[in-house]
Amino acid sequence: MKPIKYFLLSICLLMSLASYAQGSAKGIKFFTGTFSQALDEARKQHKPVFVDFFTTWCGPCKRMAREVFTQDSVGAFFNEKFVCLQLDAEKKENVDIAKQYKVDAYPTLAFIGNDGKAISVNVGAMDAGALLEAARMAVGEAIGFEQLYEQYKKSPTDLAIQQQLLLKAPNFLGAQEGMEAEKWITRIRKLYNNYIESKKGPALINKQDYLIISALGNEDKDKKTAMADFINAHLPQWKTVVGDAAAYYVIEHNDALIEDLAKAGDLKYKDCVAKINKEYKDAYAVIPQTGIAPYDKTVLYSDALYQLYKHKDAGSYIKAMNEMFNRLGDKASSTDFGKAAQDLYYAAGSKLTADQHRQAIQWVEKALQSEVSVMDRVNFLVMIGDSYRELKNYSKAREYYNQAYAESLQMAKQEAAQQMIQVAVMRKLSALELLEK
């Protein structure tokens, strides 16, 4: 099943973690004072500042602290070149600092001049190599993206330069806004297509190009299908280079096509399903065994989706989903249950019977039992509230809407998202008041 598309807003929050580890002595030695004191120290040492903006609930932040910041090579470079600081972005004294550098996702890894001006701000976890590359660019020891693009214009057939550009492109695009972003997206998309066309063959089967394909090759469905077929045709070689990730590239693309076609009422989805036991059989073999084989699960799910979206047959859909959940047993995830309910609402919400609403509530309650993401939980609570509203059980609807609002208070750092959610919930509560009169 594809990830849930939220009713209110799609934001990924990660599980809560009890603590955030400091870099050990063999890695980065982090300054222990405030941000202002770190800037003062950086001016004394004539160095820029490296700031790791983290939160205590951020899994990737924790992994970087444990696995990247502790590496000898990382520590050696960062301790020499920067005054390094870790800031919990949700602590009261750091909130304004995080806002100043537009921090709204974690980790955010910022290189800042000792005058307080940002040199570069990088969103998302990095491995040691990527972090060192970003650091070298920050101190002028490595070439920046726009300089590299100028080199490419002078040598437009140099595949090595093209590869470097495409590897740097995601972080570069993340820092662009408005018309400037659109300009670079167009350029990079054209560069990507030409690069893949030039290398498609044995030369393309390497880790660096797989990273490029994964990051930039999602715009055109037909081209992505061609890439999935190429990877599948050379799966043993790809798995030698990147492991099971190559197989999951094929699986995830085929599953997405199946779902999209089934929802569109296009029977071509059956052709994609058939691939699971035919040309894509070796790729799907990497999926861990559960109580139901991947082919059988997909047949159940896709046929049910087709009936639900094409014919609004909620009864057949519910029967198929319950069969799937029974066969999955304890392997059924919160996403499986939540997604099943959400498709039911999307496709046939206004036509659901009372019993069908009760079934949706049962699924979502099962999803809530193991879901820890605040955004997912808020979404699920609103879904249950909506069903109780349709069942005219307004007191229960109010209870779940109020709980959704209460849990959204945990999103204080995501102010824009929190505000949108709370406005939506308040509107539902207001509409409920009118229904109760």
TrEMBL record:
Signal peptide positions on this chain: 1-21
GO biological process annotation, one example: cell redox homeostasis
The name this protein goes by in its record: Disulfide isomerase
Annotated GO MF terms: isomerase activity; protein-disulfide reductase activity
Superkingdom of origin organism: Bacteria
PANTHER family: THIOL:DISULFIDE INTERCHANGE PROTEIN DSBD
PROSITE patterns per UniProt: THIOREDOXIN_1 (PS00194), THIOREDOXIN_2 (PS51352)
Residue span, Thioredoxin domain: 14-140
Alphabetical list of InterPro entries matching this protein: Thioredoxin-like_sf (IPR036249), Thioredoxin_CS (IPR017937), Thioredoxin_domain (IPR013766), TPR-like_helical_dom_sf (IPR011990), UAS (IPR006577)
SMART domains: UAS (SM00594)
Keyword annotations: Isomerase, Redox-active center, Signal
Species: Hoylesella enoeca
